[in-house]
């Protein structure tokens, strides 16, 4: 029904109706004779064909720092008292890496893959990994070998290691950009105020 209503008020339908109305008016003046219904229908169809297409809505940037913070906090909180100390520390480290990157998200280029991964890490990758493990009975997760002699806990450690590594790569890229800006600013200051720079004098009043 929504699509039909949008079509009714769309440019194609309005143009088709306008041309059909013109054809009907011309018929009243006796221009089309017995074939006037075909002419009216044809004019409507022509209007629909040549009418402008409805422009698709451009999706806005969906990154929401508050949403990311809430999601990663929930993922961390669900693990309290349910994971070995080393695994809990790894989850805490990933959470901290995500939180520390949030103030820098405005500096990511448009369409950044790293920004996409950062959001998905908080709302999907990390919580999904944890939920899959926590759904298992503790004895099964720590004792039953499920893959190449590894327990579910071993697999969880590996998966968290991959997530932590990826977050480290993103953080390194961000810090490298910040370092590059700092170095560029240092070069500017050295050229402007360092030795050999032209002496600056205050303007006379």
Please give a structural write-up:
The chain has 205 residues and is mainly alpha-helical. It has two domains: 2-50, no CATH class; 65-184. Helices cover 68% and strands 2% of the residues. It has helices spanning 2-8, 11-28, 36-50, 65-77, 85-101, 113-134, 138-143, 152-193, and strands at residues 145-147, 150-151. It has a two-stranded antiparallel sheet with strand order 1-2. α4 runs antiparallel to α5 (85-101) and α4 (65-77) packs parallel to α6 (113-134). The protein is elongated, with a radius of gyration of 32 Å. It starts with a helix and ends in a 12-residue tail after the last helix.
Short description:
With 205 residues, this protein is an all-alpha fold. The chain has helices at residues 2-8, 11-28, 36-50, 65-77, 85-101, 113-134, 138-143, 152-193; strands spanning 145-147, 150-151. The protein folds into 2 domains: 2-50, no CATH class; 65-184.
Helix-strand layout with pairing:
Blueprint: H1 2-8, H2 11-28, H3 36-50, H4 65-77, H5 85-101, H6 113-134, H7 138-143, E1 145-147, E2 150-151, H8 152-193
Antiparallel strand pairs: 1-2
């Amino acid at each position: 029904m929504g699509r039909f209503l949008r079509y009714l008020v769309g440019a194609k339908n309005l143009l088709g109706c306008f041309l059909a109305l013109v054809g009907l008016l011309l018929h009243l003046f006796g221009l089309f004779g017995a074939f006037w219904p075909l002419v009216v229908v044809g004019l409507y169809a022509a209007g629909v064909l040549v009418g402008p297409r409805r422009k698709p809505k451009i999706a806005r940037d969906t990154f929401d720092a508050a949403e990311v913070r809430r999601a990663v906090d929930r993922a961390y909180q669900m693990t309290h008292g349910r994971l070995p100390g080393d695994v809990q520390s790894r989850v805490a480290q990933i959470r901290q890496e995500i939180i520390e990157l949030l103030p820098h998200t405005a500096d990511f280029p448009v369409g950044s893959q790293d920004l996409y991964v950062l959001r998905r890490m908080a709302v999907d990758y990390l919580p999904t990994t944890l939920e899959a493990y926590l759904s298992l009975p503790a004895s099964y997760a720590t004792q039953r070998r499920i893959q190449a002699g590894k327990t579910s806990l071993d697999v969880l450690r590996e998966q968290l290691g991959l997530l932590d590594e990826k977050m480290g790569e993103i953080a390194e890229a961000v810090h490298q950009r910040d370092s590059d800006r700092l170095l560029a600013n240092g070069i500017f200051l050295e050229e402007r105020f360092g030795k050999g720079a032209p002496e600056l004098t205050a303007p006379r009043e």
